[in-house]
Design goal:
single chain; alpha/beta; globular; Rossmann fold
Length: about 200
């Protein structure tokens, strides 16, 4: 699969490496091809860098791993990407798009993209790098997109990818991500924790 990764911070870089290892083609969308953060990613033969419009145009899936308040500025690049799968892994911890409740809300209102999914926002990048035995979650109206997200989660090594529901559950899923942030960072439990679904046997 051809995946554009916009944003090469901890989350974007970790997911890019994981998907590349699984055999996907990764197109980093960057503003400056000469000085962008994460140039070491190009040592991987499955990862290449392009301008943001070129990366999106070449891809089937677009990961927007950027601060939430940066999403409105990226919306014009998604013109013509109505049928591409758009992944929103953001949590409005320190910022949110001005005038919008969340990055997901901004994407819904500012673009015509039909396959937007909230995903890969419920844990830290360290867990994404070593997800064996861990669960992840997704939310969105597009069943087509969620099938792809579930496969991408398996490709990374997650145990399960649970469906939270439609677009109306994206905010609830973001609250789950904020809950992880609260426990791991604010409450001081450390980043080596995860939120999993536990199924109990009843008598």
């Amino acid at each position: 699969m051809k995946i554009a990764v916009i944003g090469t911070g901890n989350i974007g870089s970790t997911l890019a490496r994981g998907w590349s290892k699984a055999g996907h083609e990764i197109y980093l969308g960057v503003r400056d091809l000469d000085t962008f953060k994460g140039k070491e990613l190009l040592e991987d033969r499955n990862i290449r860098a392009f301008s943001i419009p070129d990366a999106i145009a070449r891809s089937e899936v677009v990961l927007l791993s950027v601060p939430p308040d940066a999403v409105p500025a990226l919306a014009p690049y998604l013109e013509g990407a109505e049928e591409k799968i758009i992944l929103d892994p953001t949590n409005a911890f320190r910022s949110k798009p001005e005038g919008y409740a969340s990055a997901f809300d901004a994407l819904m209102q500012l673009t015509k993209c039909r396959h937007i999914v909230k995903a890969f926002n419920n844990t830290g990048f360290e867990n994404m790098a070593q997800p064996a035995g861990l669960d992840t979650f997704m939310a969105g109206d597009s069943e087509k997109a969620k099938k792809v997200v579930a496969q991408l989660a398996r490709d990374l090594g997650f145990e399960n990818c649970y469906d939270f529901g439609g677009n109306d559950k994206a905010f609830l899923l973001e609250q789950l991500g904020m809950s992880w942030i609260n426990l791991a960072i604010i409450q001081g439990l450390g980043r080596n924790i995860a939120l999993n679904v536990v199924k109990r046997q009843t008598q």
